[in-house]
């Protein structure tokens, strides 16, 4: 009954706020005639982007989170709306410290002051689900993310309302509101995950391990002993966010800008590191941060990128990674057929899908994407606009990319939008081509000299080593019995024989070199057999020397 009463109160509040906005929208500029009414209603002359942002902020809770998600989806809303909604990223009022203490007592049986050496009651960041405090324990600084006590109840009611809205839009065929179905459905799935901080902690732990050897990427360490469903304790990253930099630049805040300059901050280098980290995480490890707004990226000394808030994380299979690399590379090379092939590989189709319509749409749009300079196609549009065109075309032709592929594409769009803001002039298309080409070369090399491939080679040379002695004895026996009469070689035969021997020696040397590279990289000596390997090298060296001697003698 208490939950039902809470939901009814929430619904009544939402109805009042919506009604106020509708009334003010209808009155428009006439509100100025009635000041007493204007003070009680939102401004009637607010532009659409600001009105939507103000509405979601007033609704609070889940709706703020929904607005944050929409700010990262320019394929659904225009760039003006996305820019306005980005103000919801870090401008949420904090809850009372007594409520934070209540969460600790309920989850740990102790207050934060009893668990840590020190705990700052004033949060350094606030969001729709929780807020972050700084604590110290055993000489280390920790960031403590604590969920608001009423979040589960508030969000549960809002989630039911949103799910009902999706069903109503579909049932009533409200076509003007169809654009809401996809983001609402995605949001419902993401929110259920974000309400349990342990899931975020698991993603963070894996990404922390993946980033250990990357000098330009920093992912905080998780303090599991104090982490629960509603409390996440992680390593404190001391630095400014990229959003702090953008605001300081816009406000001409010389103190903040000077602090970043002293830390070695260079926008172009920072942009390269963001792209390298993102593509490395996605293509090499198959897991990437999928909520790359400026409040989640930290500017650390020497352009190291620090990452926070892993509530939305993407996971890609090796299959999807390979085709996404192909898609990105085909885009940078104006290879439309390659783009189609790669996009179809990571998408779902049904009887209503129109792949030919997708191909035709790409042909039409390519004229606005590229221009021909000499014999080379150059990008006329930036990456964001091309990807937006592709997503809209896929929606129109009924070709639906996988959920995590959508996360990858939207993260790419978010990165491009960010870099355009803080590092104007950076050619993201060209740099993407360089990184993808580098990745494909590395992947080809790794496949060529993979452990399994060299084990196969070693097995083949092992068979040769086992059979070689018996074959040589058989050959000598046949010669002795006169079955293979010997004849003196003519001068013209020597170069041919030497060339054949050199070719065979070269083939053997290639196998041995591959094994040597693998053994040096992985230390897997026992699996190949060091004695056999050494013997192979001696035989190959002898064959090469004999071939060279024969060639010299025939010269």
What can you tell me about this protein's structure?
With about 550 residues, this protein is an alpha+beta fold. Helices cover about 60% and strands about 10% of the residues. The protein has 22 helices and 15 strands. Strands 1, 2, 3, 4 and 6 form a five-stranded antiparallel beta sheet that branches. Strands 5-10-9-7 form a four-stranded mixed beta sheet. A two-stranded antiparallel ribbon has the order 8-11. The longest helix is centred in the last third of the chain and has 30 residues, at about 450-480. It is globular and about 70 Å long.
Summary tags:
alpha+beta; single chain; 4-stranded mixed beta sheet; 15 strands; 5-stranded antiparallel beta sheet; 555 residues
- The proportion of residues in beta strands is 5-15%
Q: How many DSSP-defined strands?
A: 15
| Largest sheet features | 5 strands, antiparallel
Shape field: globular
Furnish the topology, listing elements before pairings.
Blueprint: H1 2-27, H2 35-38, H3 48-59, H4 62-70, H5 79-85, H6 97-108, H7 112-115, E1 118-119, E2 125-126, E3 130-137, E4 140-147, H8 151-171, H9 181-194, H10 197-210, E5 217-218, E6 231-235, E7 240-241, H11 242-250, H12 254-262, H13 267-285, E8 287-289, E9 297-300, E10 304-307, E11 313-315, H14 318-332, H15 336-345, E12 347-348, H16 355-369, E13 370-373, E14 376-379, H17 383-396, E15 400-401, H18 403-422, H19 428-448, H20 451-480, H21 493-522, H22 530-554
Parallel strand pairs: 5-10
Antiparallel strand pairs: 1-3, 2-3, 3-4, 4-6, 7-9, 8-11, 9-10, 12-15, 13-14
Helix pairs in contact: 1-3, 1-8, 3-4, 3-5, 4-9, 8-9, 11-12, 13-18, 13-19, 14-15, 14-19, 15-16, 16-17, 17-18, 20-21, 21-22
């Amino acid at each position: 009954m208490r939950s039902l009463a809470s939901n009814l109160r929430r619904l009544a509040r939402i109805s009042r706020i919506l009604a106020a906005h509708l009334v003010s929208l209808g009155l428009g500029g006439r509100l100025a005639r009635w000041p007493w009414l204007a003070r009680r209603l939102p401004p009637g002359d607010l532009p659409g982007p600001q009105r939507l942002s103000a509405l979601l902020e007033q609704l609070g809770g889940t709706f703020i989170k929904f607005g944050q998600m929409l700010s990262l989806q320019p394929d659904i809303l225009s760039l003006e709306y996305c820019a306005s909604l980005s103000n919801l990223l870090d401008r949420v009022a904090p809850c009372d410290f007594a409520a934070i203490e209540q969460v600790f007592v309920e989850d740990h049986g102790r207050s934060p002051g009893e668990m840590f050496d020190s705990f700052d009651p004033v949060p350094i960041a606030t969001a729709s689900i929780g807020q972050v405090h700084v604590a110290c324990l055993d000489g280390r600084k920790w960031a403590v993310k604590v969920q608001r006590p009423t979040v589960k109840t508030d969000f549960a009611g809002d989630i039911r309302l949103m799910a009902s809205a999706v069903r109503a839009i579909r049932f009533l065929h409200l076509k003007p509101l169809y654009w809401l179905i996809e983001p609402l459905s995605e949001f419902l799935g993401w929110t259920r995950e974000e309400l349990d901080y342990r899931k975020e902690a698991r993603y963070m732990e894996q990404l922390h391990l993946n980033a250990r050897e990357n000098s330009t990427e920093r992912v905080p360490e998780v303090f599991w002993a104090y982490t629960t469903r509603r409390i996440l304790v992680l390593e404190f990253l001391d630095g400014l966010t990229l959003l702090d930099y953008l605001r300081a630049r816009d406000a001409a805040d010389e103190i903040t800008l000077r602090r970043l300059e002293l830390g070695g901050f260079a926008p172009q280098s920072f942009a390269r590191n963001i792209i390298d980290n993102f593509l490395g995480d996605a293509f090499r490890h198959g897991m990437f941060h999928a909520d790359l707004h400026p409040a989640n990226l930290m500017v650390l000394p020497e352009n190291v990128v620090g990452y926070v808030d892993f509530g939305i994380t993407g996971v890609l299979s090796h299959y999807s990674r390979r085709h996404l690399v192909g898609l990105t590379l085909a885009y940078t090379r104006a290879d439309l057929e390659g783009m189609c092939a790669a996009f179809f590989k990571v998408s779902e189709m049904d009887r209503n899908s129109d792949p030919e319509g997708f191909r035709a749409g790409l042909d039409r749009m390519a004229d606005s994407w590229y221009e021909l300079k000499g014999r080379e196609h150059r990008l006329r549009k930036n990456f964001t606009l091309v990807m937006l065109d592709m997503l809209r075309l896929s929606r129109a032709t009924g070709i639906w990319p996988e959920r995590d592929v959508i996360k990858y594409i939207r993260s790419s769009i978010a990165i491009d939008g960010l870099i355009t803001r803080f590092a104007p002039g950076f050619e993201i298309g060209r740099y993407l081509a360089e990184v993808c080409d580098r990745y494909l070369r590395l992947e080809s090399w790794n496949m060529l000299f993979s452990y399994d491939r060299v084990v196969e080679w070693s097995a083949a040379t092992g068979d040769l080593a086992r059979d070689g002695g018996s074959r040589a004895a058989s050959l000598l026996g046949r010669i002795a019995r006169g079955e293979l009469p010997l004849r003196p070689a003519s001068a013209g035969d020597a170069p041919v024989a030497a060339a054949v021997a050199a070719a065979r020696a070269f083939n053997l040397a290639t196998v041995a070199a591959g094994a040597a590279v693998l053994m040096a990289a992985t230390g897997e000596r026992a699996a190949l057999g060091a004695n056999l390997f050494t013997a192979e090298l001696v035989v190959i060296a002898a064959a090469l020397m004999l071939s060279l001697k024969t060639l010299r003698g025939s010269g």
